[in-house]
Amino acid sequence: MDLELLEKAKAYGFSDRQIAHLTGRTEDEVRAERKAAGVVPAYRLVDTCAAEFEAYTPYYYSTYDRGDDEIDASDRKKVMILGGGPNRIGQGIEFDYCCVHAAFALKEDGFETLMVNSNPETVSTDYDTSDKLFFEPLTLEDVLHIYEREKCWGAIAQFGGQTPLNLALGLQANGVNILGTSPQSIERAEDREMFAAMLHKLDIPQPPNGLATNEEEAVTEAQKLGYPVLVRPSFVLGGRAMQIVYSDNELRHYMQHAVEASPERPVLVDKFLEDATEVDVDCIADAKDGTIVVGGMLEHVEFAGVHSGDAAMVLPPHNLSQAAIDTMREYTHAMAKELEVTGLMNVQYAVKDEIVYVLEVNPRASRTIPFVSKAIGKPLAKLAAQVMAGAKLSELGFTEEIWPTYWAVKESVFPFNKFIGQDIILSPEMRSTGEVMGLDPDLGVAYAKSQMAASSPLPLEGKVFISVSDTHKDAVPTLARDFVDLGFELVATGGTANAIEEAGLVVERVNKLAEGRPNSLDLLKNNELQLVINTPSGEVPRADEVQIRTTAVYTGTPIMTTISSAKAAVNGIRAIKKAGYGVQTVQEYH
Amino acid sequence: MPRRDDIHSVLIIGAGPIIIGQACEFDYSGTQACKALKEEGYRVVLVNSNPATIMTDPEFADRTYIEPVTPEAVEKIIIRELAELKKIGTDGKLVLLPTLGGQTGLNTAMELFRTGVLEKHGVEMIGAKADAIERGEDRERFKELMLEIGLDVPVSGIAHNMDDAWAIADRIGKFPLIIRPAYTLGGTGGGIAYNRDEYEELTKKGINLSPVNEILVEESLIGWKEYEMEVMRDKADNCVIICSIENFDPMGVHTGDSITVAPIQTLTDKEYQIMRDASFAIIRAVGVETGGSNIQFSVNPDNGRMIVIEMNPRVSRSSALASKATGFPIAKIAAKLAVGYTLDEIPNDITRETPASFEPTIDYVVTKIPRFAFEKFQQADPTLNTQMKSVGEAMAIGRTFKESLQKCLRSMEIGRAGLGGDGKGWRVGDTVYGDRDILPRDLITQKLTTPNAERVFYLRHALRAGLTVDEIFELSKIDRWFLTQIQQIVDCEEELASVGASA
To answer: Which of A38, A156, B261, B403 is exposed most, by the fewest CB atoms within 10 A?
Structure first.
């Protein structure tokens, strides 16, 4: 290929992949040809002064305007930390937190740390977080250049979420030493067949499941498992295109519109466990010395079917039996051992009728690591980075589980007010942008604090509007009575109002949207309702309930869309009404 | 001037959870501020409800409250911390630094000020005084102030009924007009009227939806060029521009949703100097005593008329970008200015020999591209407007705009390796076009005129479909200089493809 054109294309920012496709080569061929011709990038400094003064902070970018390479040579042992790239739903600040901890830990342990990331919003791209900062795209091409140029000893790809993880195998194939849990183990946990085989070997149950590479296979599989089933593409973070389907029709629609299934990228079909309690378990393990410690167990407030990134969670678990907790610990240890985990691992469990099922295992940093670390007062990401770089967990002094005597509640925060018209019902597809933590010695207060922090404070008086689906009508009498006992007035439509009256309670009846004015929307818009409890009526929500939910968002009225969160709200209101709340520093908690 | 010795503890209010418009940049700025203030020997008290932040790690502040960022909870913290000071036996003060926690932090601090809580407990606000914050944040007061100092603002008026509204429309004299109802959440009920019928409809709807039956009618600046200046000032009245930023997408798209480029690419030096002078005049008039501000300008591409859009008298999303783009740590310096230092007294960490009063100079081009998540909100409207919808961003640095743009596009994690030519198809609804297919004209036209997340890629499609730079400018109002750069990328792609074809 013409050298002048190649140099020009690189100077214009073309990647090897673009050049490969345009010129009919493979990316590897372009790279080899380019390197043979000596066309590699130079690294320049971001120095505030256009190179007029010497710069002491090593903050670099690459360019094909070559010559004048400004990299500071050093012969220290170098570890590269791969960041997470731009924030998006499913991959947020949590992973940046982990990368920053890796940089701090390894700096402390005497390594030279190199951070690679492209997200300007982060602490990881602060020039004094690592020894060297490379503000670069997280692609195989860009990362390899830095690794080779700097002659790194190893790279950490398990902390930055899915972005660096997707690069791990390619990097390894090009001679990069991936520290910690091997990419093969990660693949073994991600690949459905290999994963099922492992669970079978360890005698750990998972919900019945299958694979489909096209629409017909999906329908056959679903019928074999029985509806409802949970369907999703393989290899995604944040539950992209993950859905619970209840019928052949819904499934066919999903296969035609939501995913592109292929033999290489099959769709996973799982039996969906209705009304199961989900639990996230984070652990740290060191295959070198055989130490495995559970960092924290987070019990979801909502039942199974809500993405773990969207669910509210409580640490430590508050409803689970000791037997279930012991089983989860046992399974977690067994899987960490089998996968030879060196670093972090997250497991998602579902507990139904005292049986513990494994839903998913991720032998890498998870979204809940910062939360757990703060709840227990141990920097798990930092410890894991040290273990990955060779330290022994037993020598780092973290060998015992910590079960706090106070409560930590995680609540998620959603951008629905920016997407007016979007239904807010939580699903297996993650849609939250952020999270808050409520800390308190009392569980009710901790929950109430989490709601305050999420800009949706629980009301202490006023009117509660209750409108639930038929399947949740049984829960109405107790819930309604709780609110009356707390001094609230009840407002309801049709069937829910009947259920409340049958329980012997007073309720203000209000029109459904089709029944005339004033209706529930009018009350909401006039701020006459202080809390809304509205659960979806079934697989296809009715238009009027969607309107109620979106109007609650737009009027800023707190809304609960599951019975379990409504119950948590009752406990929160009760606790705050009883004794208010205090504040305390994390330094005092730990 | 040395650091203030009368201060013992500094309370920093964090931004709370990550939401659209307020992401982890405030963890970055808060973390820097914590480090800087600790370095100065102050006791740092922090409140933030977001556990995923670095700043809430126990090492960064002396006293970390993972508690709700609400006026009520912060008052409880103030009471508790004052009791602590008494217990320690110091006569040093507890002060509040409100400008590092985004809009949430600022609003919480202002609420504590307005309700008299700060006064009651004798807690001083440092960094920016309440009246300066009000002058910067209150749209009407800010506009009046701009007119007083001889700067131009959009022509506008307030209407409570149709008669008022027609009078304003006549005064502005030109459609389209922007209608913004007062006190509705997220600008609900507002819109753009292109003719009298739409105007009447939107005005009535807006007045109806506003709880105070009030709307603001503004002249439209849609299609104008948009710029941002990051300014810092110290108490000795030294002012510096840290970074100038140009929005690739013209007015009408929220800056957070625009592709932005630093430094400014399409102004003459004279125009830039006028904007720089105006920035200093604004930060002085508003009275931001110490710290950083972000000021937005708009320029009419037809006649060069420059208008002041708004100012954020605090560390903002753009400050994080400006810090990363230049290497100048705005939040850290802002924290030091707040406790008494002046810019010339603070050394620049990077060069060690220049002080922070040296304006950064950059010899490269920085591009930032927003990352969207519309696939998660399929019932919602995917077009871009004045309400921010992006959930993140990537930045890239190159020696030319072309290099930095393509590096940034491959940083987006959307499966693309650049502007195009990477073999990946283009999905439009249920149709998937090949990477190098020529897309239908009407689709291209629509994607260029209505701002959307993929618009930058449609500039390539448009050029490949034979549209000229002038035609694309007419449709998108994106400056011809940027379009010419993209033309060069596309030409290079064709050259590469011809190598492929002859191979």
So the answer is: A38
Task: Report chain A's terminal Cα–Cα distance, integer Å.
Answer: 63
Question: What is the dihedral sign for C-alpha A456, A460, A464, A469?
Answer: positive
- What is the full per-residue pLDDT of chain A (590 aa) written as tens digits? 899 999 999 999 999 999 999 999 999 999 999 999 999 999 999 988 887 888 888 899 999 987 788 888 888 999 999 999 999 998 889 999 999 999 999 999 999 999 999 999 999 999 999 999 999 999 999 999 999 999 999 999 999 999 999 999 999 999 999 999 999 999 999 888 899 999 999 999 999 988 888 899 999 999 999 999 999 887 655 556 788 888 899 899 888 877 776 777 788 899 999 889 999 999 999 999 999 999 999 999 998 889 989 999 999 999 999 999 999 999 999 999 999 999 999 999 999 999 999 999 999 999 999 999 999 999 999 999 999 999 999 999 999 999 999 999 999 999 887 787 788 888 888 999 999 999 999 999 999 999 999 999 999 999 999 999 888 889 999 999 999 999 999 999 988 999 999 999 999 999 988 888 889 999 998 889 999 999 887 656 677 888 899 889 888 899 999 999 999 999 999 999 999 999 999 999 98
Instruction: Give yes or no for a cis peptide into A228 (omega within 30° of 0).
Output: yes
Q: Is A137 on the interface with B (CB under 8 A)?
A: yes
Q: Which H or E run contains B455? A: helix B455-464
Question: How many residues would you count in chain B?
Answer: 503
What is the distance between the alpha carbons of residues A451 and A301, in angstroms, rounded to a whole number? 13
Q: Which residues, at least 6 apart from B86, have a Cβ–Cβ distance to it below 8 Å?
A: none
What are the tokens at B490? Answer: 């596309």
Contacts across the A-B interface (CB distance below 8 Å): 373
Q: How far apart are CA B26 and CA B14, in angstroms?
A: 7
CA dist., res. A339 & res. B349, Å (int): 44
How many residues are listed for chain A in this entry? Answer: 590
User: A84 burial class (0-12, 13-18, 19+ CB within 10 angstroms)?
Assistant: buried
Backbone angles phi, psi at B109, to 5 degrees: -65, -40
Task: Kindly state the DSSP code that residue B10 receives in the 8-state scheme.
Answer: E
B375/A435 Cβ within 8 A: no
pTM: 0.94
Range list of H helices, A37-161: 93-108, 140-150
Q: Tokens 């370095």, residue?
A: B39
Compute how many other C-beta atoms are within 10 angstroms of the C-beta atom of residue A423.
20
Which A residues 252-291 touch B at CB under 8 Å? 257
Residues 6+ apart with CB under 8 A from A491: A463, A464, A465, A466, A507, A508, A509, A510, A520, A523, A529
Q: Measured between alpha carbons, how far is A29 from A66 in angstroms, rounded to an integer?
A: 22
Whether residue B49 lies within 8 A of chain A, CB to CB, comes out as: yes
Partner residue opposite B64 with nearest CB, options A52, A126, A586 = A586
Cis-peptide, bond into residue A58, ω within 30° of zero = no
Query: Is A19 in CB contact (< 8 Å) with chain B?
Result: yes
3-state helix, strand, coil in chain A (%, to 5): 40, 20, 40
* A419 neighbors A549 (Cβ within 8 angstroms): no
Nearest alpha carbon to residue A489 among A510, A465, A463, A467: A463
Q: Is A130's Cβ below 8 Å from some Cβ in B? A: no
Do B52 and A14 count as a contact with CB atoms less than 8 A apart? Answer: no
Give the H or E element holding residue A352. strand A342-352
d(CA B27, CA A97): 10
Task: Measure B410 CA to nearest chain A CA, in Å.
Answer: 7
First-last CA distance in chain B? 69
Q: From CA A205, how far away is CA A226, in angstroms rounded?
A: 18
The count of other CB atoms within 10 Å of the CB of residue A365 is 32
